[in-house]
Amino acid sequence: MAARPQVIVAGAGPVGLLAALVLAKQGVPVLVLEAEAGLTLDLRAGTYHPPSLEMMAPYGITDEMHRTAIKVPRWQIRDRREGVIVEWDVGLIKELTPYPYRLHLEQHRLTPIILSRLRACPAADVRFSHAVTNFEQTPEKVTVTTRTPGGTEKFEAQWLVGADGGRSTVRHCMGVAFEGYTWPERFVVASTTHDFASHGYTMNAYVADPEEWAAVFKMPDDGPPGMWRVIWPVPPEETEETALEDAGIERHMQRFQPRPAPYPIKYRGIYRVHQRVAADFRAGRALLAGDAAHLNNPIGAFGLNGGIHDAINLGEKLARVCRGEADAGLLDLYVRQRRTVNLEYVQEHSIRNLKRLAARSETERRQNFDDLRRAASTPEGTREFLLVSSMIASVRRANAIT
Ligand SMILES: Cc1cc2nc3c(=O)[nH]c(=O)nc-3n(C[C@H](O)[C@H](O)[C@H](O)COP(=O)(O)OP(=O)(O)OC[C@H]3O[C@@H](n4cnc5c(N)ncnc54)[C@H](O)[C@@H]3O)c2cc1C
What we know:
Elements: E1 7-10, H1 14-25, E2 30-33, E3 47-48, H2 50-56, H3 61-68, E4 70-72, E5 74-79, E6 83-89, E7 102-104, H4 107-119, E8 124-127, E9 131-137, E10 142-148, E11 151-157, E12 159-162, H5 169-174, E13 178-182, E14 186-192, E15 204-208, E16 214-219, E17 227-234, H6 240-244, H7 246-256, E18 265-271, E19 274-278, E20 282-283, E21 286-288, E22 294-295, H8 303-322, H9 329-358, H10 362-376, H11 379-389, H12 392-400
Parallel strand pairs: 1-2, 1-12, 2-8, 5-15, 12-21
Antiparallel strand pairs: 3-7, 4-7, 5-6, 9-10, 10-11, 13-19, 14-17, 14-18, 15-16, 16-17, 19-22, 20-21
Flavin-adenine dinucleotide (FAD) binds at residues 10-16, 33-36, 40, 42, 44-45, 107, 131-132, 163-165, 169, 271, 290-291, 298, 301, 303-304, 307.
């Protein structure tokens, strides 16, 4: 990139890369600074809702995802003892979206798709092994300090986007509080080739249980037959080592779905889960997006999808500001739209989803199941549930904020 960047993006996760792509496609010189030596490969999100697919389609990303991704038109809420409580058919809202399904593709297969498109843009530059350690701002510019293998390097731009994940350095330097809480239990994720469809599971299913809820996702992995991912909670007193050792994983998998032979396990991981939203997404010339701005539990798959919605919303507005078509006040609209729906939809519904799976009292469990069955029993109830769970309602709400 010849010109000085107008925008620096901290973090080459899906959100930072996507925000940079939106800017670069509109000719805004953008520099992405990533701490790691390459793209992150660990097991993270992998479910995309219809609005996310619509937003990424103009960039050619959605079509490319479809080459390897799995379409999930139907998904279940189950109970470990009772089996299927409701099965939702996203196809029932097909008049609202060209993508009436959830799409499953590992996050680490999405980021290379975005990166290759970004690298094709003359206005973009991506530097790995550049960890942002600090930034300062004046009314005219931001100066970003990085740690690189060769020592400290500084970069200047007009704007800084902090898409540097949950522990965001940019957010710390902005002095913005990360309000919310951390769940006491951690989540284990394990992947197996065992085919849960043979037990009646749809390719995405959430399984309520007072002792150990679970979530199931079929992922494309390296290609057919793909891989089934199972997530379950680990109590605070259990150590990470015990939770991840072979015997512990096997015990959980057998309890979840008994089978005569041991489970073949390809991946395993454990992570902490938070419900947090930054007190503000903007401080002068610095803005936050994705996990840097908000964190939530994965039940409902709102985290990465919400980050994608941030990236597109912010990228489009910041491009207009950079090109002199709008004043910086437009960026406050980004904050109002995205922060509001994160609180109203992502936080509220992800918490509700998790509590529904984990409910312990029999009265609460019965009430939850009755509510779900009632919603599924009428076209209006089904439609309302599908609009919220597919995030169409959250995007409509954001667009209505002026
Ligand atoms: C272990 C784990 C498991 C998850 N599982 C699920 C799941 O099952 N379902 C679900 O919906 N969501 C899940 N999530 C959440 C989902 O993956 C995130 O919402 C998504 O990754 C957000 O993308 P992002 O680009 O905002 O942040 P990230 O993907 O975290 O990307 C941030 C990038 O910034 C880089 N970075 C960090 N600090 C700096 C710095 N100082 N300077 C430069 N670069 C920096 C990081 O290396 C990283 O590449 C999971 C998250 C984690 C961490």
